[in-house]
């Protein structure tokens, strides 16, 4: 599969929604062949135990909240999806960029009857970057609803100027900047200020949510007794993404060092994904 173009057009209104709300849901852009491949790849990687696995479920809880990261660095299926799937073109169009580089990918799996939440957060505090031109494309590999841990977002929160404390599924203290403000649980209406709007979507496999790195989001557990919730998030960056290493930020494979305050240029670590090198 070579840069299989999105089956549906991305409207100018979708781009404006992304810019205004910091998040937009796009329907049906990842075809069934991609979804079937990545579901199989997800099951294979989970069974292997390979990667930087984090378990979000507490001992004694039912179900399983599994997360993994950087699969494209060591697995050919995930790398093909990141570089040759629709995600890179989607990112370029939402960011209004002529080219984008692949940043990294991340798996999120909640098996049936998993009460573990995804804590409310925004992404940028996790990363050794600053900038607006970074987009996460959260691809539903299974159908998703609020019951099965569909994501919720506070529309416009990317414009708040906030920097909330990062928190991993397993609440790893090494990743927490204790000086940063704790993100409220916006699933509780009492935590919302007047006029704040929380948005979410029921999704079919192949739909995706695209969000800005400072858009606040979270989700509850998977309350379904039968439906898995599988999602693969791929991240791409454009022109204004600059290197900003911090002690609690995620360490990239090989722990590469780049000049702070500049955009890293490294086709091995951050390959150009759009336009595709093969045309």
Characterization of this structure:
This protein is an alpha+beta fold and 279 residues long. It has one domain: Jelly Rolls, CATH 2.60.120. Helices cover 16% and strands 22% of the residues. The chain has helices at residues 12-21, 32-48, 76-84, 87-95; strands at residues 23-26, 54-55, 65-69, 100-110, 118-121, 129-130, 134-140, 152-154, 198-200, 208-211, 217-219, 229-237, 242-243, 272-274. The strands form three sheets. Strands 1, 2, 3, 4, 7, 10, 12 and 14 form an eight-stranded antiparallel beta sheet that branches. Strands 5-11-8-9 form a four-stranded antiparallel beta sheet, with no helix packed on it. The mean pLDDT is 93.
**Beta-strand content:** 15-25%
Distance between the amino and carboxyl termini? 13 Å
The gyration radius over C-alpha positions equals 18 Å
Instruction: Tell me the major beta sheet.
Output: 8 strands, antiparallel
The CATH C-level name is Mainly Beta
Low-confidence residue ranges: none
Indicate the CATH architecture. Answer: Sandwich
- Topology-level CATH name: Jelly Rolls
Number of continuous helical runs: 4
Kindly give the count of domains. Answer: 1
Return the average pLDDT rounded to an integer.
93
Shape: globular
Helix-strand makeup class = alpha+beta
The percent of residues in helical segments reads 10-25%
Order of helices and strands: HEHEEHHEEEEEEEEEEE
């Amino acid at each position: 599969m070579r840069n299989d173009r999105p089956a549906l057009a991305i409207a100018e209104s979708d781009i404006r929604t992304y810019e205004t709300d910091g998040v937009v849901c796009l329907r049906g852009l990842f075809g069934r062949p991609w979804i079937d491949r990545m579901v199989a790849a997800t099951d294979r990687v989970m069974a292997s135990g390979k990667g930087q696995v984090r378990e979000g479920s507490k001992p004694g809880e039912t179900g399983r909240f599994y997360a993994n990261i950087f699969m494209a660095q060591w697995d050919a299926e995930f790398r093909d999806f990141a570089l040759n799937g629709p995600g890179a073109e989607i990112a370029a169009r939402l960011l209004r960029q002529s080219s984008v580089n692949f940043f990294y990918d991340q798996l999120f799996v909640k098996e049936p009857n998993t009460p573990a939440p995804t804590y409310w957060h925004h992404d940028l505090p996790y990363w050794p970057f600053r900038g607006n031109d970074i987009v996460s494309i959260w691809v539903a590999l299974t159908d998703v609803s609020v019951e099965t841990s569909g994501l919720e977002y506070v529309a416009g929160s990317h414009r708040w100027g906030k920097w909330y404390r990062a928190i991993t599924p397993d609440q790893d203290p090494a990743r927490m900047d204790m000086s940063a403000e704790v993100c409220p649980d916006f699933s509780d209406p009492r935590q919302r200020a007047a006029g704040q709007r929380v948005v979410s979507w029921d999704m079919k496999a192949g739909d995706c949510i695209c969000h800005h790195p400072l858009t606040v989001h979270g989700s509850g557990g998977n309350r379904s007794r039968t439906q898995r919730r599988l999602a693969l998030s791929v991240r791409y960056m454009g022109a204004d993404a600059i290197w900003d290493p911090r002690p609690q930020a995620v360490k990239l494979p090989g722990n590469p060092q780049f000049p702070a305050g500049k955009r890293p240029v490294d086709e091995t670590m951050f390959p150009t994904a759009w336009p595709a090198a093969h045309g």
